[in-house]
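WARN  no MSA supplied for this record, continuing single-sequence
INFO  ligand: TNX
INFO  echoing inputs
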Amino acid sequence: NVLWIAAAIVLGSCVNDKTYTQPVVQIIPKPNHTQINEGVFVFNENTQFVISSSSQEEIATLLTSQFKHAAGWDLNVSDKSHGKNVVELLIDESIEKEGYQLKIDSNHIEIFASSNAGFLYGIETLRQLLPESIESDNLKPDIDWIVPCLTIEDKPRFQYRGLMLDVSRHFFEIDYLKKTIDRLAMLKMNVLHLHLVDDQGWRIEIKKYPELTNVGAWRVDQEDKHWDGRRATLHGEKGTYGGYYTQEQLQGLVAYAETKNVEIIPEIEMPAHVSSAIASYPELACFNQKIGVPSGGVWPITDIYCAGKDDTFTFLENVLTEVMAIFPSKYIHVGGDEATKTNWAKCSHCKERMNAEGLKSVEELQSYFIKRMERFINANGKRLIGWDEILEGGIAPEATVMSWRGVKGGVEAAEQGHDVIMTPGTHCYFDHYQGPQNEEPLAWGGYTPVSKVYTFDPVVETMTEDEAKHVLGGQANLWSEQIKTESHSEYMIFPRLLALSETLWSPKSTRNWEDFSSRMETMFTRLDYLGINYSKSSYLVMH
Ligand code: TNX
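INFO  complex generated
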């Protein structure tokens, strides 16, 4: 017996003395500075997470819950350290917001940050240092849960790192939005822009105007008998396709996003892309047109809000009051794109408005519209974002421009001292094809493979230093005319979002396609575990 016990002790120490090969560091987005040292830290069932404030508990749990699934361990999270074999979250006020430092030696892991965002990103980096099977929902018994000894210092290049989902053209469930938030956080991205209103559907409950979701959230299909080839003729009745979010659901989503350092920016389109609102309340249009909610990508649509009637503005102010109560973001996006103004030129209310305000063109009338909404938004302590059309006829004084028709609008806005978010169609439109058209699902058009996304730079070379400071960052836009399912949505987002995240986070000097594409390949294994349907066409541009 004594012999047997002695043998067991020897065996045990052999396990502890096991030599491990150092894992390769493959993180996306690439950290600013990585210094790799000799040795590894070995996680085991006694590894402890040590937090310095209770608000860090949720962040630590992101990783301990993965260990629960993949290793079957219940790792302890506590505010008292047992010394060795710990992952410690430590406040360091000198580190900038969203930045972090990660120090790994064979006994400890330390994450330093000044905010929960920094701790979250430190944990996300640690997650990517672990074997890919840490993402597994099932037990992986034969894995060495090790990470290399190293020091990482990291912070974002841009403060705004976004993704826009168009939930109007097709509706996506709240759970999918939550999953998307997790994926944004994994890539250290921090904005989810929700395109909640478009011609094809109004997707947010507004208590004062119930018809917006009784009628405006539902549309007839193009095959339907209520479809005349241009317009849905069904008016004031519920169509067959649609959906919307209740205010309660959206509040829950906002709270969820906050734990992942993701800001949700709501977009309430105006004055165009609003057939869904006019179908619900025809008096919002110049001629009280009775229309139905259209389906598909019918274009152009001339039914837009009347800029002459004061009631239009009262309606929009009431809508925004409810929207602002749900979303704590300092931004409200008011759209402003692609307004066909033929009705404005014919409408007596609009003509009266133009005379009264001394406006010489319908472009100036749109500028009046947006400026008036900006005054309301600013008076409520928020800031306005609009697509680059808001430059036409004179930009609203405090507006932030989202540049989509290339970077031109963004450059112009920065010259005028306005903040800019770059989302040029050439690099950031994820509704474009990403591989050979005959092998890819039907897309809106365009060709934007992952390799092209990787060349995106929100700062344009011709900009002065001051102008460049106005570039807050960039964003991918996923318009969903052709995207009916979650799995198709994932397919369009991945792997392109991996490339975008690096262009927005990592210093430009570290950019290297060969290096990135090899890290991306490793990341595919992680995406497989996460059940993400990413496009394999990227292999074609990689090799
Ligand atoms: C233009 S980009 C639009 C969207 C369409 C998209 C299709 C922008 C501000 N407006 O309404 O969905 O093209 O790529």
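Confidence is low (pLDDT under 50) at residues 1-15.
INFO  checksum written, moving to next record
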